[in-house]
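pasting input
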Amino acid sequence: MTAATTKRLTTSAMIASFADPGQRTAPAPFGHALNRLAEQRPEIVGLSADLAKYTDMHIFRDAHPDRFYQMGMAEQAMLGAAAGLAEVGLVPFASTYSVFATRRAYDFLCLDIAEPGLNVNVVGALPGLTTGYGPSHQATEDLAILRACPNLTIVDPCDSVDIEQAVPQLADHAGPTYLRLLRGKVPTVLDEYDYRFELGRAALVRPGKDVLFVSTGLMTMRTLQAAARLETDHVDAAVLHVPTIKPLDTGTIVRELRTDRLVITAENHTVVGGLSEAVAATAAYAGIATRIQPAALPDEFLAAGALPTLHDRYGLSTAALCARVKAAL
Amino acid sequence: MTTTIEVTKADRVRAAATRIRHHALTMGEVQGQGYIGQALGVADVLAAFYAKGDGELRLRPEEPEWDGRDRFLLSIGHYAIALYAALAEAGTIPLAEIDTYGSDDSRLPMSGMASYTPGMEISGGSLGHGLGVACGMGLGLRHRGNPARVFDLLSDGELDEGSTWEAAMACAHHGLTNVTAIVDVNGLQADGPTPGVLKTEPVTEKWRAFGWHAVRVDGNDVDALLAGLDEIRDRALRDGAGPSVLICDTRTGRGVPFLETREKAHFMPVAEHEWAAAHDALEGVRR
Ligand SMILES: Cc1ncc(C[n+]2csc(CCOP(=O)(O)OP(=O)(O)O)c2C)c(N)n1
Ligand SMILES: [Mg+2]
């Protein structure tokens, strides 16, 4: 057998999209939102560490070449420089992959940016499991690392709607932020609901009597799909979307958790230190004894491979969520 | 009268480089993409190390964990396709296995990882790690009296990372004669040509300033590569000489004319029908 006659499921490249076939998408929503913002606010500048093209920052770079700084593949220097730019009155958006913003450059993010409380907006692409390229690029623990960082606001958007609406709010927020970037052709989902992104707020996107999904990031797209599928089995599932991971909207979460519904959290992140543990702690601290089941990545280094295979294997696919609910009900 | 054509070591290494290029193209075809431009560019360098019978590395191909082996670290995990091709040439990876490249559950993932592949010394993918580990291996082997050498293959993009220069200083400080860095200067990074991303030149002078013996060669000229390795090996026999670096100027897509002239891109696009043409365009050993 030659390679040409064998068609295997192959690793999704860095440029692969997790959008479902035929799904509505928007191209590079982050880059375009940053351009719109830059037109109104001359103090906005962009930086990247040899990954402008892969973080949708090239849209901004090409529109505003005089406001973009290429720092080379030097993530620590980039975040240090972003701090410096903010110190002298500019509002930087600095992009790289999530793994490098957190693992490589965390000390710089923490001490140069977060401790002084600077308005630096760190933009991390390939959050969680959004590439099949293997552990070096899978930022499965970025939320766990960054949730423990004081002063930092953390946003995990679901789709292009979230990203477009979040970008100006991140710039308006006086302190440092971290955006889990979805890039390339990004699904457009939330415009079908009565929803607006509000920094710091969770939103009940869909009501339901039997099940409560508490989800963040792209997993809200999946929980909404799961809820629609479960409807045909006469299971009524609610979706509470939590796009701001920090500060967590504990008021809304506690209100929704006071329930006898099955509660399932869903996140594109390891089960350690992310949304599920944050929600569980919120419940426990509020004296709510409801059982919470996490749909999250296992506490492992994940495999390399094709993204759909991996989402199925690790329980992030819509089918896996539905199976989870049926087994629990 | 009969004329005998003498086949030199360089000829055999060139033939190995052609085989490595074929293997890489075979893998690229499986995925329909990949870092094929880099693989073709670095094939001559890898052949100089892995050519069966002639490579610079002291290896037991069928015993990749042999304690006496020279360590060859792929700091550039995205070049895995090239190293797999070289490991297939050396005999560490069965040739029949290369068309599992990048497929689910393959031992040959797109990005090099030590836990997946025999002969892959470190887990890459995040750039700027190799030289630090090479430093530790160099220290450890010397500490244990093991004469094996350590080679670390870097890219020009990795010269942007502070960690590379931290490790470079440490290797020189500790006088690690058993460590050799190889830098693939292909003039390319993710956002475009290196000079537009971050100015790294003068590369040779930088390494010298960091205390390294630096040799710069045309990385697609096998004679020059072998001469550079000879020079570094001679030096490595002298105690206290310190680390050496072989700086290799390479051309992406090398060996396949229509890819050599293609616009430089980190992900070189190759159309489905072009893979076979690329094999055919390679000179020398046929499939
Ligand atoms: C620490 C780190 N930062 C960023 C990346 C993303 N990245 C992958 S390859 C690459 C280009 C680096 O330059 P080089 O290795 O010379 O690229 P090539 O010659 O293969 O185009 C970048 C920035 C990475 N893998 N690791
Ligand atoms: Mg390069």
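fyi Residues 80 and 108 of chain A are 6 Å apart (CA to CA).
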